[in-house]
Fold this protein.
Amino acid sequence: MRNLKLLLLCAAIVGCAAVAVYADNSVLSKVLERYQAEGAASFSAENGEKMWTQKFNSDEEPLIRSCTTCHGTDLSKQGSHAKTGKIIEALAPSANPERFTDEEKIEKWFNRNCKWTLGRECTVQEKGDFLSFLSSK
Amino acid sequence: MISSPFLAVNNAGRMDIQQENTLKKIILLVALWAIPATAMAHDILGFPRHKGVEPVVNKKYSSSCGECHYAYHPGLLPSRSWKKLLEPKSLENHFGDNAELSEKDRLEVLAFLTENASETTWHFKRSVKITQSIPEDVTPLRISEVPYIKKKHMEIPREMVKDNPKVRSLAQCNKCHTEAVEKGQFSRTNVDIPNFRNWADLID
């Protein structure tokens, strides 16, 4: 009887976790679907990774910029803002389950960071590639 | 003859001497009450009741601005400064960073900042000093450019702020002002400069 209770409890916990994960993924898949509706082809985590570490030139300091400038190379660890030093929480959903669960936040930061790092907005293809790469971490 | 002075006038429409004296007494009493009452009112109307800046918080402001730096209290700048900082063009290049917001978020943050700007929080001492120190035709974009704040930090040597890896800039108020974020307190007694615990002995 006691074992049965324990089993039920475990099942409930696993069930809740599964629902939580599903809820998270639903935001991500909704965003990816929208990108495709806006003209993107299928997404490549590999391309996302390449671009993640690519270096871009800027007229202002820092003269060489990359996503890793602030986010670091290990996505399961915290990064820090290039200028203010403020901690940026880990991007990998495995380390930080809140990542990619808020569509407005995703778009706000793609807009700000693509312009700062690349000097232009990212295309929907690039954003989808980035998300595919990041969400796999 | 009317017995009660409060029934004011006699048949001729004039107050008699007794009524006049009573009125004088009333005026005197009102005046005696009014002096301390005005002094109390001054506490509210004339002088600030609180020491720091108002520690107001807004969820949208915290997420829009506080993800890159400590979300500066609105009472640290006048509304004309916040308006300029929050212009779409300004946000595109926010001291070298892109801090763009959706129009909906921008307006929400702007409203919060201007509604709680330094000149509106007259009951907080630091906000009053900030407002008073800025000439009317000047719109500072950096809190560190506000004359009152500039003056307050003038004697702090470079090694404690800019060359201090744990502080790096005067813009990082909360690195030394330990009660700033939560309470809006910027008193000397709450200052703790990282790597310079004995700062008070080094600066007059």
In short: The CA atoms of residues 74 and 116 of chain B lie 6 Å apart. The two ends of chain B are 77 Å apart (CA to CA). Residues 17-45 of chain B form the longest helix (29 residues).
